[in-house]
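Write out this protein's structure.
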Amino acid sequence: MEYTIGISGPKDTVNQVLSVGEKHYQDIEFVPLIYNAHTQIVELINKNHHNLNGILFTGITPYQIAKKQISFPIPVEYIPREVIILYKILFEMIYDEKLSKIENISIDTFSEDEIHEFIGKLSLPMKDIFVLEDASDDDEVTKFHEQLFKEKKVDICLTTTLDPYLQLKNKGIPIKRILPTNYSIKQALDILVLKTKSDLSQSAQISIGIVNIDNFKKIIKERPSEYQLQKIKLSLHKLLLDYCEQTQSTLVFNGSDEFFIFTTAGSLKNINQKYDSTLTELIRKKLPITVSYGLGLGYTANEAMHNARIALEHAKINGGNCAFLRSIDRSIIGPLDTNGFNKVSIDPKIVQEISQKIDIVPQTVTKILNTIFSMDKSTFDAKEFSQLYGCTLRTAHRILSALTKANVIQILAYDQAYSKGRPYRLYKLNIHKLQNP
């Protein structure tokens, strides 16, 4: 199998996803991660995510619960419950189950605005609609629907969660389970597979770091004793060995004023390490010297070493005692701070140019770019941007489309799985477009 993807959710929706996934993705191994209650989600994911390339949650609620408590080193996605699915639910209730009276309903997971907007478009004699947006607590969901029915405020309850559905059904309360459609499952899987392929490609990149002692000739003159000089090198060597042990890297010393650190992007990601200035700060605090640190990424050792040399040159030009990174796309990032990629200097003139190209005021352009930087990842999609920026998905698509036309970002993946609907796009920031040559 090329990839291993976990499917997390209740038994019925996990089996539904497995049926769709095994039909369309023969080269992927799917691992069921079934839970009976939301309280089991975090423990289940923590126990299994180390052996997976990606995770698909069968709903937004388990996804939100996991994201709040787990820092995922792998791509994750969830199957949305589109409000359009309520057409099917209402049709089944009216025609299949022959319910003569549906004036008042209770529903969870969806937002109140989208439910009222949806119902407003239907010519149904609806009176009251009660909405519980947060469905993360099974007991609260059960209590919400049960109390409304006992008080005769609703005729039927709609839920996306399995445990409340079973409990309320056993109590004789009329309730319908809102399940994902095969279309939404296939679409979510398509997105996750694209993210996983991109993630594995990046994880396979070789990372080479060159640690160069600043002002080495001056240090030799100030410490004429060979013993003193060798003591400094030994201290630096030990510090770097400890660092490499923590980051699962390999250290090579050339015998002079440089050390080489070899690893892969995937190794660092698996232990939640980032490319940052932590090493240079550690050396400055513990030793009577400073270093310049050049980091290079590449698909071959030669490419990574070449990029590391160029990054090191930038660190030296910047005065030393700092770290720079040169990535595969030849963009230079730095000087890095302890937050890694977030420290990217943008010339105000460039912000002004972007503002004029996309017809958005400079202050908003800066906010948009800072949002993308704060993701701390090389690729992202419209949904991730909209959630972090705080806008609708439609607005996010409009902003990203404008940035694409201005060549500030580029589309890495473009997939139209179906004849209808918006194609999925995976974006990457063109960092070199935000810096002066």
